[in-house]
Amino acid sequence: MSRINLTVDGVRYDDDVDPRTLLVHHLRERLGKVGTVVGCDTTNCGACTVLMDGQGVKSCTVLAAQADGRTIDTIEGLAGEDGTLHPVQQAFHERHALQCGYCTPGMIMAAVDLLSENPDPTEDEVREGLEGNLCRCTGYQNIVGAVRDAAATMRAEVPAPRESTTETVEGTAPTTTGEVAR
Amino acid sequence: MTATEAGPGTSVGAALGRKEDARLITGRTMWTDNVTLPGMLHLAILRSPMAHARITHLDVTPALESPGVITAFSGREVADVQGSLPCAWPVTEDTVVPDYPPIAVDEVRHTGEPVAVVAARDKASAEDALELIEVDYEPLPVVLDMEAALADDAPLVHRDQGSNRCYTWTFDSAEAGTGGDVTRAESDAEVVVTRRFSQQRLIPAFMEPRSIVVDPTGDQITMWSATQVPHILRLMLAMVTGTPEHKVRVVAPDVGGGFGGKLQVTPEEFIAFVAANRIGRPVKFTESRSETMMSGHHGRDQIQDVTISARRDGSVTGLSVRLLANMGAYLGLVTPGVPVLGAFMYNAIYKFPAYRFECTGVFTNTTKTDAYRGAGRPEATFAIERAMDELAAELGMDPLELRRRNWINHDEFPFTTVSTLTYDSGNYEAATERAKELFGYDELRREQERRRAAGDTVQLGIGVSTFTEMCGLAPSRVLGSLNYGAGGWETASVRVLPTGKVEVVTGTSPHGQGHETAWSQIAADQLGVPFEDIEVLHGDTRSSHKGLDTYGSRSLAVGGAALVHACEKVVDKARPVAAHLLECDPADLEFTDGAFRVRGSPESAKTIADCSLAVFNAHDLPEGMEPSLDSDATYDPANFSFPHGSHLCATEVDTETGRVRIRSYVAVDDVGRVVNPTIVEGQVHGGIAQGIAQALYEEASYDDDGNLLAGTFVDYLVPSATDLPTITTDRTETPAPDHPLGAKGVGEAGTIASTPAVVNAVVDALRPSGVTDVPMPCTPERVWRAARSTEGSERS
Ligand code: FES
Ligand code: FES
After folding, report:
1. Distance between CA atoms of residues B341 and B722, nearest Å
2. Which of A30, A40, A104 would best serve as a mutation to test chain B binding (most B beta carbons within 10 A)?
3. ipTM reported for the complex, 2 dp
4. CB-CB under 8 Å, B712 with A39
């Protein structure tokens, strides 16, 4: 048993874990974070994707002990506290990018990860970016559409929080504005 | 999240956002594996590594010493209570239905068959303990190939049966009086085309692995299961184990896909049921992906010998089909029936004057086969659409022109086919015209000609598939005539709550199809109640006591009709209530835009909600009036429904590397009247993806010892986003004349249509070099070989 602490969806948890426990099992079975699911035993399906310190990872490829001290974001923490959906969630709904929804938590988290690295992906870039996430229901077409819609929404939304930031740090960091607006 | 607002009476046909999304996109879904109960134990199953062997020694006692283990048992220890898994569809009187114990007792007949079970406090402890169980196997000869299995001296899968033949089912139009004699048609024919096609074995590969929780405490034994068929499961649990039906409750919570793969009552469900009762505590079994792949049922696996006879002008004169269908080692719920469903579809949309069909089911030492999206109909459609292309090539005729010369014209419906079905409606001309236009068919043919003449190494192939299917399973009478063990009706209840909100209870069991949304749309229109005010309940035998579940594109075609009728009964019950409230004669009322109004004086109106409150209070209802609007309806269709469509596929085939790229894909489907176009389009996309997967990627094969070679997602190639094209979809709409909504079915259409469209396109690209077939899946290696083969076809 080893002692680990994780911050999952904004809440800190301290636990003793068996060294062989996978992060996904720790999330589901110990922390009750059952929004993240398991679809395979060979790290191929991506259903278990979460963000670890902001980076997308398949949580079945990480030992819980390896995640010690890290911040984990799952599908359950993605919407705002008032229930406002993340643009990727909203786009998945609007574009009918899910049917049974089993791949959806992982697919959405992978899409969030993809968009954090590439805010304006082409169709091919979305397909490549989501290659590690299998969906058996949709044929991916609406998923690709949803991710690109979400990208457009997020690009349009970026100026809003930045405006207030620029006010407080006015004149101090003009280059930041330029980078974010890319 | 808000769905698009719909006005009264306009919900059906609107592209409303799905209700079920709210929980699915936020991780608040109730999957079976999320269910956790106090004191719950976890099961692990030891599975046979041998494809055929006698169990000479099995001892679970060492496992009992392992930490966390509560109990362990083998098949022998539960032999008297575990029963034999049911087959509901022995297609002939003499179909061989072997004993099928959930846990093998003396003999194992395929790899992955359960031989022992451990129950422990957590899953890891249960799995660790499996390794301590002692088993000795005495190997028995293995038979995997269907033709070898039918040879006189073949090793027997079931040694007590004397043969590996499960059944032979035949149809002959001359005997049935629906057409002529095929032998005569073939001897008189100007052209005869004979082909052998092989339907590789596929794995349904739903994304949610199967999971079961059984709670034996309380009055009813409750089973949660990731199943498509909670009602059938409850009945089978009762019948097989002898537990009274009313003492069993089955819940299918959110279910992550099925595609026929969860149309089963599984060994694991019975194992969990037996284990929970034996231990007296709740148990959970969630399978790993490898277990799903190895022991969840597979699909397809048929060898098809097809002969079309025709005249030189292209008119077809006869069709004969000889089929070998691999059952696997045991029979699942509908295993023998799957190829027989196909029997009615080989003649497809064409006017064959003579037809003969023969199917032999064969036992082998493999995992059982059973329904997989389309179940029998994709196989039939593939064979006929491939064979029509071969005939077109033989005649030097455009494949669409050949089809046009033989298909049923729109003014010939209803049309009784040579295989006895009556197609109610359709317009193949319209769908094909639209598809050609969207595809740019003529232009692509010209490009193809140019590139052929230029001898490009990358050749353009154009594949055609004009299909129909029988769906909406099904008229109970027809199922009875096919020896099926149940009816095909569906049921719905409408419960009107005091505040005017409505609960719809359905016997269908969605697992991705969006029934909560579509059924709300139907009820909203029928009752004049807002879409948001309707809750759809399903998948729990405690609320939905009756139903035949979801498969065979039946839910809207049958269950949707039941819902319409249940709503009509609500309106009928509300009418005298409204008349009483409005102090008028019920006959003077009309129900429009969600309210009863007196004809001629529309200003005073009473809604269903008004009537519902009135019956809730029931203070001054007329003497004898039942104070309730709640209504049930059960609908048994008179006929199947027959969606159809025309799919066109263009492939770029690299003759040097064998690589196939789908350049464009157009699908024009006619599924009758549409309740939610967004959901329909999604079904078409997903269906096509699975059909393309069969054509190009997926294959579950066995090595000579009977080990599954593609047992994980590493080697069983479920397509990812980079493997699939963008699809252009459109619809024509020929309403189903006998359905209250005019709806047909859509769940399987894409899968049925797309496989032959893609393979026809691959073969078409290589046709100039003499290729007449490429076996599925058309991998680069196979395409490359075919392109190089001097005889042209790898197979012929
Ligand atoms: S469960 Fe993690 S990749 Fe499949
Ligand atoms: S929505 Fe079912 S697997 Fe993707």
Report:
1. 34
2. A40
3. 0.96
4. no
